[in-house]
Predict the structure.
Amino acid sequence: MKSGQSSAGSRQAAFHALYKQHSREVWALAYARWLDADQAQDITQEAFLRLWKQWETGEEIQNPRAWLMRVARNLAEDYGKSAFHRNGTHPPQVLNGVKGSENSPLEKLEREETFAQLRAILEELSPADRHLLTLRYALDYDAATIAERLDIHTTAVHMRLSRARQRLAELLAAHGVQPNL
Amino acid sequence: MNANLSPEADSEDGLDRLLRSYFQAEMTKSKFAPPEVAGVAPARLPQQRATLFRSRIVLALSLLLVLSGLWLLLGNRSRSSLPVPAGMNNSAAERHDPFQPAQPARPDSSPHR
């Protein structure tokens, strides 16, 4: 009985360690797909919950990171097929650029508006480029780490990052958004 | 040229700062806490196992039924085709074949005799 409890405890510890290690990357993948932080969080939680359930069935997962990324990618795609997303509905903070209904200071409002414009512009980029940018700016990964994570060459990372930034700069200029905050 | 190829190596420009603050703000919206798994058991597994067990039982029972039916059938047939002791029942020899034309009755005395 005691050994059963301790094995369950060690499994939970391993699960928490895995979460700490990979949750942000799973989040980044889901976020890059739909640019929705809440949805990305839900997808991350669901992916990890499924991993836990898989463990409970006794099935071994050889590469948990790859498994999690695959599940998160599928979940993100499923989300795209759902009626909610098909109808083109966005959460209010995306539409307004204002989070909640509380009165915000002018600076915060401007910042939120700029972010909303940036989000709209990011939607024009490919999911792959958004993933790259999320890894670079959200997780603060350098090119070598991104290359390792995406299994591509570092030069390709530099090239794609450069192109994505260039395209972003053009789109921001076209929409009249000043990049300086 | 080099600045474009390695953005992280250079000092941040306005776009970098904007992107960084945007993505960091998006990340901070999410609370990175592992899902509660203490009481989470594989929800469908016991049910799946029960269903599997039940279907196997049903399969075994139906197989048993089919086999016993076959056995009964074969048993009856083999009993009916057992060799009959001579003289007890000559029905096979005397059985009338409806597809054979009726034989005319022969006279008792032969003309060649």
In short: The radius of gyration of chain A is 19 Å. Chain A touches chain B through 47 residues (CB under 8 Å).
